[in-house]
Design goal:
It contains 26 helices and 14 strands. The protein is of the alpha/beta class.
C-alpha cells in the first residue's frame, strides 16, 4: 500500500508540475476533434487513433520549447505556440467552409490577389463563427488564466532532453503504427509516405500532421511512380470477369498518333520519364466513332462558366441555356468534381485532360511546359485564330502565364479587356466587347472564362444578382438560391447575345459551342443546394453531378447516358473536331467512344458503370445490388491512384516535350 501511495503521490506531483504538457495535448486533441467534425463530419475511425498518437510528440516538443527561457518568457512562448496552432485550425475551418477543400501552403502565394474577395471571406468566417470560437477557447484560456494555472519555471536541461527524447520516441511509435497498416490500395501507410491527398490525410492523421506533410510535399514533390503495368479498365476480364466468350474483333480505328514508345524508352536515361513512357504505352486508346470529325473545320467557342450547374438552367428564366442543353448533346450522367484550387484546377482538368497535382497551381505550373494537346495549340496548328478572355483580373492565378502557353491571345481586366469593374463583372458585357475581334476571322477558336456566377449569392453586394433581382422575385427559394439563379441569368443573356452575333455574321451554323462548369456552386450552403435540388443531396458523389453543354444550331439532339466527367471534355471535343491527338496521353476519354467510364474525385473516390467507392468511409455500393468485389475495388483504386500520380509526373517533368522533342508544328 505504501508503494502504491508513493507512486500515486509521485505521479500526481509529476502531472501538476508538467500540467502544461497535458494542456497542450488535450488542447490539440480537442481542436483536431472539433475541426474534423466541422469539416468532414465523421470523427471516430482508425484515423482518430493516428491523430492522438501524432498529437503526443507535437505536445511534447511544444512543451520543451516552452521551457527555454525564464518564467515570463516561457509563458509568452507557450501562448504564442498555442495561438499559432489555433490559427492553423481556424484557417482550415474557414477555408474549408468557403471552398469545400482544405488549405495548402501553395495557396499563400495568391493571398494578395485573393484579398479582393475579402467580403466573401468575412461572410464565410461569420457563418462558421461558433466553430471558430470553440477552436480559439484553449489558446484564449491559456492567455487569460495561464499564469495561475501553470508553472512556467524552466526545467533543467536533463529533463528537457528526456521530454525531447520522449517526443522523438512517440513520433517513431506513431509512424510505426501507420506503417504497419498496409491493407487496401489507399491505406494509411501509402497516404503518409507516398501520396498527399489533403482530405484523406486530415481524416487519417489530423490537421497538424497534414500541415507537416503539406510542407514536405511542397518541397519534395509527388510520390514515386508505381509500376507502369497498372490494371486497365477496358480489359474485358475486368469488365466481365465471368464472361469467357468474347465477341469477334471488329476493325477499329483509334485516336492515336505515330509515337514510337519503344524507341523513346530505349533512348531515355531518366528513370521517371522512362516509366512515364511505359505507362502511356500500356494505355488503351479510345476509338473513333460515328461522331468523329462531326464538326471538323468548324469554329469552336469553349466557355468555362463560373459555378455553373443544372440549377442554373430554367426554361423561362434562362431560356438560351435551356435551349442549348436540350438541343445539343444531352449528357445525363456528367460529373464535375471539385479540386483543390477550385476554378483554376477546374479549368486545368477540362482544358488539359490531366488531373491537378495537389498543393500547387497546376495550370500556372503548366505555363512553363510544352502543352501540345491544349485546344488553343491544337487549333492554332490547324490555322485557327485563337483568343481567350476573362472578365476579371488578367493575372489572377497566373493566367497571364498559363493561357498564352495554351495557345491563346489572352485578355483580361488589366491587359486589354475593358468592362465595367463591378463585382462580379458582366458576362454579357464581355461578349459585347470581344466578338468583333474574332467573328470575321474564320476559322476561329475562342475561350471564355466567365465570372458573373461567382459567390457570394446575395442581393446586397453582388452586382449581377442585384441586376436580375426582379426576374427571380417570385421564386420559392431563400435569398441564396434566388441570387444564384439571378447571377446565371446574366450568363444566359451573354449566350443569347453571342448566338445572335454569330447568326448576324452568318457563322452560327459553322460554330460549335461548349459550356462546362469550373466547379459546383460551393458559395451555397448544403441546405441551400438541397433547396435548389428539391431533395437532400448525397455529399460525396451526387453533389457534383452537373451539366455539360455541347451544342451546334444545326445538329439533332443526342442523349448520352454514359457516365462522364470534366476530365473527358477535351478528348471528346478533339474527336468531334476531327483533329489529330493521342488519346493515350490524356487521363480522360472521349465520352462518345466505347471506352469504359470512370469518374474520379479529389479524395480518390470513384464511380464506374458497376458501382461507386467512397475512400473516406471505405464503402462500395454496387449498382446491381451484388456483394462488393474487393479485387475489383482494389484494381479500380489502383487505376485511379496511378492517374493522379502520372498526371503529377507529366506536369513535373514537362513530359509532352519528351514525347515530342521536335515539337508539333
Amino acid at each position: 500500500m505504501d508503494f502504491c501511495k508513493t507512486v500515486w503521490e509521485k505521479g500526481k506531483a509529476f502531472c501538476i508540475r508538467h500540467r502544461l504538457f497535458f494542456y497542450f495535448f488535450f488542447s490539440i486533441v480537442f481542436m483536431e476533434t472539433f475541426t474534423k467534425w466541422a469539416t468532414l463530419g465523421n470523427v471516430f475511425n482508425i484515423g482518430y487513433l493516428h491523430m492522438v498518437l501524432f498529437s503526443i510528440p507535437i505536445a511534447l516538443f511544444m512543451y520543451v520549447f516552452a521551457n527555454l527561457l525564464g518564467p515570463k518568457g516561457n509563458r509568452v512562448i507557450a501562448c504564442v505556440e498555442l495561438a499559432l496552432v489555433t490559427v492553423i485550425f481556424g484557417v482550415q475551418v474557414g477555408y474549408h467552409h468557403i471552398f469545400s477543400v482544405f488549405f495548402t501552403f501553395y495557396s499563400i502565394i495568391g493571398a494578395e490577389k485573393a484579398m479582393q474577395f475579402w467580403k466573401e471571406a468575412l461572410i464565410g468566417i461569420f457563418q462558421v463563427l461558433p466553430v471558430l470560437i470553440a477552436v480559439i477557447l484553449p489558446a484564449l484560456a491559456l492567455i487569460i488564466f495561464g499564469k495561475k494555472m501553470f508553472d512556467f519555471t524552466p526545467m533543467n536541461w536533463k529533463k528537457k532532453g528526456i521530454f525531447a527524447g520522449a517526443g522523438a520516441l512517440f513520433q517513431v511509435l506513431a509512424v510505426l503504427v501507420v506503417m504497419l497498416q498496409g491493407e487496401g490500395v489507399m491505406n494509411a501507410r501509402y497516404l503518409y509516405s507516398q501520396a498527399f491527398v489533403p482530405e484523406l490525410s486530415v481524416n487519417q492523421f489530423g490537421v497538424l500532421t497534414t500541415f507537416r506533410l503539406d510542407m514536405r510535399y511542397m518541397f519534395t514533390g509527388s510520390a514515386p511512380l508505381p509500376e507502369p503495368e497498372v490494371p486497365n479498365l477496358d480489359d474485358p476480364e475486368l469488365q466481365n470477369p465471368d464472361d469467357t466468350q468474347q465477341e469477334p474483333e471488329k476493325p477499329v480505328t483509334y485516336n492515336v498518333m505515330d509515337i514510337d514508345f519503344d524507341a523513346l524508352i530505349a533512348g531515355e536515361e531518366d528513370e521517371v520519364v522512362k516509366t512515364l513512357h511505359q505507362y502511356f504505352q500500356n494505355q488503351t486508346p479510345s476509338s473513333q466513332n460515328e461522331y468523329t470529325g462531326m464538326f471538323k473545320g468548324k469554329n469552336l467557342i469553349w466557355i468555362t462558366a463560373e459555378s455553373f450547374s443544372p440549377y442554373a438552367i430554367d426554361e423561362e428564366l434562362t431560356p438560351t441555356l435551356y435551349k442549348m442543353s436540350q438541343e445539343g448533346f444531352r449528357f445525363t450522367n456528367f460529373y464535375n468534381p471539385l479540386w483543390g484550387v477550385s476554378t483554376l484546377d477546374g479549368e486545368y482538368v477540362s482544358m488539359t485532360s490531366l488531373l491537378p497535382k495537389p498543393g500547387v497551381w497546376s495550370m500556372y505550373q503548366s505555363g512553363k511546359n510544352y502543352m501540345p494537346f491544349a485546344m488553343g495549340n491544337i487549333l492554332r496548328r490547324e490555322g485557327y485564330s485563337t483568343y481567350a478572355y476573362h472578365n476579371n483580373t488578367y493575372d489572377y492565378y497566373g493566367r497571364d502565364v498559363s493561357h498564352p502557353n495554351l495557345g491563346y491571345d489572352y485578355k483580361g481586366i488589366g491587359n486589354g479587356l475593358n468592362v465595367a469593374q463591378t463585382w462580379p463583372e458582366s458576362d454579357l458585357e464581355m461578349v459585347e466587347v470581344t466578338t468583333d475581334e474574332y467573328i470575321h476571322q474564320e476559322p476561329f477558336h475562342v475561350y471564355y472564362l466567365t465570372v458573373s456566377g461567382h459567390l457570394n449569392y446575395t442581393f446586397n453586394g453582388n452586382a449581377m444578382a442585384t441586376k436580375h433581382m426582379e426576374e427571380v422575385a417570385d421564386l420559392p427559394y431563400s435569398e441564396g438560391p434566388s441570387a444564384y439563379i439571378a447571377c446565371n441569368i446574366e450568363l444566359d443573356w451573354a449566350m443569347e447575345e453571342l448566338i445572335n452575333r454569330l447568326d448576324e455574321a452568318g457563322v452560327l451554323e459553322d460554330t460549335l459551342i461548349v459550356i462546362s462548369p469550373d466547379h459546383y456552386p460551393y458559395g451555397l450552403t448544403e441546405e441551400q443546394l438541397n433547396e435548389l435540388a428539391g431533395k437532400e443531396l448525397e455529399q460525396n458523389f451526387e453533389k457534383y453531378k452537373s451539366t455539360l453543354i455541347i451544342w451546334n444550331s444545326e445538329m439533332e439532339p443526342v442523349t448520352v447516358d454514359k457516365l462522364c466527367s470534366s476530365l473527358d471534355i477535351l478528348p471528346t471535343v478533339c474527336n468531334l473536331m476531327g483533329v489529330e491527338y493521342d488519346s493515350r496521353l490524356m487521363m480522360g476519354r472521349d465520352i462518345l467512344s466505347d471506352s469504359s467510364p470512370l469518374v474520379m474525385f479529389q479524395n480518390y473516390s470513384w464511380i464506374t458503370d458497376k458501382g461507386c467507392y467512397n475512400t473516406v468511409t471505405e464503402e462500395y455500393i454496387s449498382f446491381d445490388g451484388s456483394e462488393p468485389d474487393q479485387e475489383y475495388i482494389d484494381q479500380v483504386t489502383t487505376i485511379v491512384n496511378a492517374k493522379f500520380l502520372y498526371s503529377a509526373k507529366v506536369l513535373e517533368n514537362d513530359y509532352y516535350a519528351k514525347v515530342f522533342p521536335d515539337k508539333l508544328e
